[in-house]
Write a structure and sequence with these properties.
The complex is a heterodimer. Chain A is α/β, with parallel strands linked by helices. Chain A folds into 2 domains: about 1-265, no CATH class; about 370-430, no CATH class. Chain A has helices spanning about 1-15, 25-35, 55, 100-105, 120-125, 130-135, 370-375, 380-400, 405-420, 420-430, and strands at about 60, 80-85, 90, 105-110, 140-145, 155-160, 170-180, 185-190, 200-205, 210-220, 225-235, 240-245, 250-260, 265-275, 280-290, 295-305, 310-320, 325-335, 340-350, 355-365. In chain A, helix 2 (about 25-35) packs antiparallel against helix 6 and helix 7 crosses helix 8. Chain A starts with a helix and ends with a helix. Chain B has one domain. Helices cover about 25% and strands about 35% of the residues of chain B. Chain B has a 10-stranded mixed β-sheet. In chain B, strands 13-15-18-21-19-16 form a 6-stranded parallel beta barrel. A two-stranded antiparallel ribbon of chain B has the order 1-2. The two termini of chain B are about 30 Å apart. Classes of the chains: A alpha/beta, B alpha/beta. The interface of A and B includes residues 335, 342, 352 and 361 of A. Strand 20 of chain A pairs antiparallel with strand 24 of chain B, so a sheet runs across the interface.
Amino acid sequence: MQDDLTTGYSAQSAALKGTVPGADALRAKAMTDFGAQGFPHAKAEDWRYSDLKALRAGVYAPVDAPKVAPEVPAAMGESAARFVFVNGRYAEDLSDLGDLWQAASIRPIANHFSSSSARTDELVRGKDGIALLNTALLRDGMVISVPAGVEIDDPVEIVHIMTEAAGQAAHLRHVIELGEGAKLTVLERFIGDDSAYWQNIILQARVAEGASFSHFRLQEEGLGAVHTAKVYVNVDASGQYHVMNMTMGAKMARFEAHVRMLGEEADATVDGVALTGTGQVHDTLTHVDHVVPFATSDQIFRTVADARGKTAFAGKVTVAKDAQKTAADQSFKALVFDRTAEANAKPELEIFADDVKCSHGATIGELDAKAIFYLTSRGIDPVTARRMLVEAFTAGALERVTVDSIRDAMMERIGTWMSSRADRTVAEVQEA
Amino acid sequence: MAGTAEAQKQIAEVTGDYKYGFVTDIDMDMAPKGLSEEVIRFISAKKEEPEWMLEWRLKAYAMWLKMEEPDWAKVSFPKIDYQDAYYFAAPKKKDGPKSLDEVDPELLATYEKLGIPIREQEVLAGVQGSAKVAVDAVFDSVSVATTFREELKKAGVIFMSISEAIREYPDMVKKYLASVVPVRDNYFAALNCAVFTDGTFVYVPKGVRCPMELSTYFRINAENTGQFERTLIVADEGSYVSYLEGCTAPMRDENQLHAAVVELVALDDAEIKYSTVQNWYPGDKNGKGGIYNFVTKRALCKGKNSKVSWTQVETGSAVTWKYPSCVLAGEGSVGEFYSVAVTNNYQQADTGTKMIHMAPNTRSTIISKGISAGKSQNTYRGLVKVLSGAENVRNYTQCDSLLVSSECGAHTVPYIEVKNPTAQIEHEATTSKISEDQLFYCRARGLGEEEAVAMIVNGFCKEVMQHLPMEFAVEAQKLLGISLEGSVG
């Protein structure tokens, strides 16, 4: 099987030759490495709870442009610019550069490798089969460079749409570069139809000294999709990185955040909410690597698993030998609604310095029956009561989203998701 | 409290070296070096085992050959050459001692030196009011003495070496052996099945509360040997037993392998309390020598409302790979795990527990305290698993790590897997160093720095220590002091 995958993807990679100047050697090497190791093995420690069967089963074809132009969702509040990717390719006519081009450098990743500032070593940080394939099939994506001292207040929205793409895959890569003291907010959205496609995306960011990068993700892929996303962020001294990943869609979704704290007083906030329903697997892996002293990190993850849903969270914090005075916190909480649902957690601390304060907490359970009873006794119907409790449960992560329009939109989705499950809930309550 | 003052004194007295590192000069009966079917036949013949046991061993050996050594633990050590060790070493028998008086005086002296009360009269003459402890003393590959057997027999408790049990109670051994840890469970368990030489068998009959603490003392003496012991404890309905385990080894430059399997079975309403003070030779200050401690310990709470409690104080061994676990199969059964793991110098410990909740209303508590000093690596690795049919499961896990040097590592790798919504699972973990304020306070009261650290560490471990039987608690506290010796400043 691996041979078939290698042959198939090698042909795809070879066909891309010349499309991205300066990237051919990079692609070829990634392809060779992929051939050698393939997709992560089902028994690999980092893949304990996800199932890559869909990827291992056969070669996903390069994605075609859709026959019918897709509908683009309305922007979430004010935005500095809007980039739309349809089936893995930048759609210029659907995008809106706004005024962003005046303040920052925006270019397609195809022009990135020939420029002298491109750091190819950082572009190939991902070492597993999924990341390797992303490099081997690299073609499109956005590079946004915000110069030192420039602060962009409104969010930049990047919308990814997949449609009519059964058996096809998009391999996108975005690069965000923030100069010293720069500020940028990016909202990534993912939507798609119900075809069984694969969205494979990597976002890499470099946050220079004193810069601040807020990164919000709203994943609402179609329910037949495989969504694999990796985020690699390096944070320099006094830099700030905040990511909030909201996962709702896809049949199998994997989100990875690899954050390196490279400068003193760097700060990272890595949050996520996953709402998991029938037949869905939502898997999150975070790795916050404290390389230097005096950096801080905080993680809040909340997952909700309804019938036949499965959530998993593996959060790793490493503190290097000299990274004294590190403060790293992590909180994971999962709600399990049904006997057929499943929640898994693996909060991991790896500490090689002594003067640190690190903690993690994890809880798994169902909604508190007493709290539901209390609310219903105050005249609130059970469906609303449950919704309120789930909203409160996820609020820990959501309330840290600083952009009101984005936070409200995310909150609203939690309400909608809960309501969509309400029929079942009512039946359950009546039964009880 | 006098006991505490005494313990403090003992900590102060200790001068930092491994006290149990001496070698007993005694004639040994050894199997040929290396591992092969012949060696297994040799061991089986030496132990005068029935044919079924030999077959079982050979089957396990065939399985082991096909298995791979696990590498997922956060420990690193040179590849073990399984052919470069002796798998059987026993003090030469002088016509089988009938009573303790006939046991080789060298051996008695050894246990005396280790402070193990092997002579019944000495135990009886001990401090008034102190509890009686029955001891099974295992020296390299054989059990050399089991005390208080007659008295235990009166209560119906079977307490003997497992080799004897295989001969005397074959049906019971057949029924329970490998029923908790299957032969193919893991690499080291399979190896143990093939070559295990001795260990302890305990059976506590229905409704009996074992009249005294039972204890096994393991001693590795011979050079280039591995110790592979096997412990099987069965607590029948409504019974109770408390079991203690201790171990030491001489100081040698080579690494020695210790791969034990411990199986506990608790039937309806039975309770087993299993305490370990593990003090194998940890290697010298430069990480040379020491014991590889690769142990599989598992309890099956088979019956309703049964309970198993593991308490361990891990201070020794160069490399530890040990996860005392509870399979909670009986409704309402309870699993507990209290652990203190101390690593110093170049020691590596990867230890923790697994709580598998299979039945409704099962509960488990995990309290783990890791202390790393020197250049050591200390990892807590645990699993709490709730199967979908297990309603109203409750688990509380707390793992705290204390770092005593800037060159050591403390890691926590807990796994939580829940398939039932009624489960309530809580996990907390913290990592920090000894607070400067606490140290300053102790120093201001005239305590030396090491004393102060020992005191703070003892406080940090108190939640676990209080679950140890009295006799062990004092020893364990003392050990903590020794293990951390030289780690301050």
